[in-house]
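Quick one, probably user error.
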């Protein structure tokens, strides 16, 4: 039942956001009472925390799975760097989470650390196999990706340049993997 409640909350958050969904909505969608929801979660805040943690666990699993995909180092890097789930959540939900539930947003730092480790390992493999340039320090590549992606998920930056996360991530992917110089 706990997992069903988390799933229902995830769907309701997708429709109404973190602040506007209600425990009544979840109970109604599952055909249970509010009392049953409160049997598993003491508050709406605890339920939100569980939804965020559930999402982060899925993202961690996705990052680790990307190491196992067949293909080039570029394919693997693409899979781990750009599996942030930006297609799953509209920008306004991410913005709401950052603004009104910063303690939940901070939980993403653990996911970022895991992804950074996976990226470092993939870059090292790429350099060793000759698929990636060996004249650029892997640490600089990792730092560039980390800070760029952090900046993209800051809703203020997105608003400032009138971008969506998806648009920004696609441009970053082209810059990192193809460069900024015109090909002749």
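Nope, works fine. Designed sequence:
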């Amino acid at each position: 039942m706990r997992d069903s409640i988390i799933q229902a909350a995830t769907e309701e958050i997708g429709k109404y956001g973190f602040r506007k969904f209600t425990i009544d909505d979840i109970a109604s969608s599952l055909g249970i009472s509010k009392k049953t929801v409160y049997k598993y979660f003491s508050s709406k805040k605890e339920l939100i925390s569980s939804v965020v943690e559930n999402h982060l666990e899925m993202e961690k699993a996705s990052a680790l799975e990307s190491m196992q995909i067949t293909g080039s180092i570029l394919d693997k890097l693409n899979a781990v760097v750009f599996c942030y789930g930006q297609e799953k959540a509209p920008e306004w939900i991410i913005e709401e989470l950052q603004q009104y539930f910063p303690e939940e947003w901070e939980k993403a730092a653990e996911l970022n650390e895991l992804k950074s480790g996976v990226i470092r390992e993939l870059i090292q493999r790429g350099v060793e196999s000759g698929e990636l340039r060996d004249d650029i320090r892997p640490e600089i590549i990792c730092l560039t990706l980390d800070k760029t992606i952090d900046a993209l998920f800051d809703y203020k930056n997105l608003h400032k340049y009138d971008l969506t996360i998806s648009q920004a991530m696609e441009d970053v992917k082209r810059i990192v993997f193809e460069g900024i110089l015109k090909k002749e």
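The radius of gyration is 19 Å.
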